[in-house]
Amino acid sequence: DSVRLRLLDAYAACGMDAELREQLRAMLQAEQLPFRGPSAAELLTRYRATVSAESWPQIREELFAGMRNRYTLCDCLLAEGMPERVYQIAKDEERFNVGRYQDALLQIDAPFVLAWHKRRVLRGFEDAYDRKGYRRKTKELAYLLDLPGGKDAVREVADELRARYPRKAALLDELAKAGL
Q: N or C: at which end does the chain have fewer Cβ atoms within 10 angstroms?
């Protein structure tokens, strides 16, 4: 990875835009970016600098079409000011990590983000089996209080947990301790 990053710098320093563009395209369309390298948004910015402003929209769409990693794609979409496309990907893919892009997605559809968090927290409570696990999941549930509409959602989840698990004293105790 460090060799590829040094190669990018060398191409940029020598004004070899075509070679730089090909290397950047390859990195952005790969499954993973360099571990300690620039972010997808930084690479996209460098790529944009190698093409004309008039041709950028078409080139950008071709680049996005070839991206295999959906999170790299979403990082680039946000860098380009396209949160609606990230939202569409999140809605279309069942196992999408909405929490990673929640700040942008909250502005588009807060109930969608809240519903995703509720499902995640409820699944977590199903997997918890002791007081320590209940405490950890209760803290995650309390996190939802800060989201728009979170108070009602937390109340719904807490009520559902009480109804679903009336005999789990440790769970009920952790909910009470958290004021839920």
A: N
How distant, in Å, are the alpha carbons of 64, 74, 92, 104, 170 from that of 107? Answer: 23, 16, 18, 6, 36
- Sequence-separated (6 or more) residues with CB below 8 Å from residue 23: 4, 7, 8, 11
**What does the H/E/C string look like for 73-117?**
HHHHHHHCCCHHHHHHHHHHCCCCCHHHHHHHHHHHHHHHHHHHH
Residue 33 predicted with pLDDT over 80: no
Task: Give the model's pLDDT for residue 16.
Answer: 85
155 with 125: CB under 8 angstroms?
A: no
Reported as a single tens digit per residue, the pLDDT across 163-172 is 999 999 999 9
Sequence letter at residue 92 = D
Residues 6+ apart with CB under 8 A from 46: 8, 12, 20, 24, 38
* Dihedral (Cα; 10, 14, 17, 22), 10-degree rounding: -30
d(CA 150, CA 117): 10
Let me know: does 141 contact 132? Beta carbons within 8 Å: no
